[in-house]
Amino acid sequence: MRLLVANANTTEAITEACATAARAAAAPGTEIIPATPRFGPAVISSRAENVIAGHALLELLAEHAGQVDACLLAVSHDTALEAARQMMPCPVIGMTEAACLVGCMAGGRFGLVTFGGIETYRELVARHGLSSRLAGLAGVNATPPEAVADPDGVGAKVLAAVADLAAQGADSVVLAGAALAGFDRRLQPSAPVALLDGMACGVRMAEMMVALRLPKPRTGSFAAPAGRASIGLSLALEGILRGQT
Fold this sequence. Notes:
Elements: E1 2-7, H1 12-25, E2 31-35, H2 47-64, E3 70-74, H3 81-87, E4 92-94, H4 95-106, E5 110-115, H5 119-127, E6 134-140, H6 144-149, H7 151-167, E7 172-175, H8 183-187, E8 194-197, H9 198-212, H10 235-242
Parallel strand pairs: 1-2, 1-3, 3-4, 5-6, 5-7, 7-8
């Protein structure tokens, strides 16, 4: 199985952290293929940057269409997830959606911790239909680059937030941030509840979806696009929109 781990921002260190976490979770025989967009924000931290990153991510996925068995979006905003699922001929997994779904199976309610602001993640959980299972959200005073440069310092802040969420009734906590990939293994011995890494959960879900061999919808909003005209797009992305996969 060939699994594309597609970052949506242009920070190579985050791509590599996600790929490392993915390889640690992958079953024997699953090849992890990391990829970074050719343009876009260094780190997504606003709605505008998320939309820009969506275009970059779709272009990146289009370049690998037909060459991989599944795609895992290495971006905690699940950037362009629905569009990617419509566009790609293989399963596409969002890392935060995957972790939240595992949280629903790990207990009654889950919490979510991320960097900085939390409202876009509240909206994301709602889009996934899981608001009733959310115990709470926490934003730590740190940035993704700090998580790469000072994992111990950021880890201490994350653990404090996890403890607060557990006190609010969370039975598990999603670590929402591509730069937090692998922090579950680092922090779990000191955490009061299960820590859910989107890369680990996403890899296992991708393997499951490939094994199930579910057919792609031929009707409805997730049917593959075809016959769509466009200008100024990469040749690979333009070809997918025309139905040339």
